[in-house]
Amino acid sequence: MYKRQVWTSLLAHWERLGMIWSLTPAASFSVIGEVARTICLRIGIAWLALAAVDYMFQRQQVLKQLKMTKEEVKQEYKDSETSPELKGAMARRRRQIMKMRTSEAVRSADVIITNPTHFAVAIQYQANKHHAPIVVAKGVDHLALKIREMATQSKVPIVENVPLARALYKECEIGDFVPRELFAGVAEVLAYVYRSVKKARR
Asked: Residue 131 is part of a domain; what is its CATH number?
């Protein structure tokens, strides 16, 4: 492409280039400079056009890849939600948690997410056993207060997040995995708790 731009520029100024031998040195340098500027301008325009095309192509590829990744994640989560093995594991885990007393459930939790006064939801996450966090206890008003008191006694972290606490209380029963639409919020809370615990141990 660049060779073509150079050749086109030379042809456009062929007559003037052929006359430089009869011109004064100053005039000759002026003609050569003008031709050089024309060549550089054409090459610059061609380079910008090529860069723009390449940018658009790369952007489309990245967007396509991101879209595919997002769809793959959704599909994987959907498959895991509907697999018989996972459903059986969820049922068994729910039965185990329901047999626990609230105090035991709170002690087993990684974090208590609160409203802060009306709702309290205890979350447990065992990454080596389950694909998502589990609600092990929850309460409203008086029971929420008791859960916070038990968590304080057991040194279970308490994090205030009003919309997340409300949504978890409304959408989840004890023993349920955190639904995917709330997973990001819970993951953020857990990450904060883990960082805080790690910092406190130093």
From this structure: 3.40.1690.10
Q: Are 138 and 160 in contact (CB under 8 A)?
A: no
Q: pLDDT digit string (tens) for 95-136?
A: 665 556 778 889 989 999 998 788 999 999 887 777 788 999
Query: Are 163 and 115 within 8 A, CB to CB?
Result: no
User: Does the residue 61 lie in any domain?
Assistant: no
> What is the pTM for the complete model shown?
0.53
Residue 72 lies in a domain: no
Range of 24's domain?
A: 1-51
Give me the residue label for tokens 């993951």: 187
Beta strands 134-140; 119-124: pairing state = antiparallel
Looking at the chain, list the stretches that DSSP marks H as alpha helix, in order from N- to C-terminal side: 2-12, 14-18, 25-82, 84-99, 102-108, 142-154, 162-171, 180-201
Residues in the chain with pLDDT < 70?
Answer: 1-36, 39-40, 42-44, 46-47, 49-100, 200-202
Q: Is residue 58 part of a domain?
A: no
The answer to whether residues 25 and 118 belong to one domain is no
Report the C-alpha gap between 33 and 39 in whole angstroms.
Answer: 10
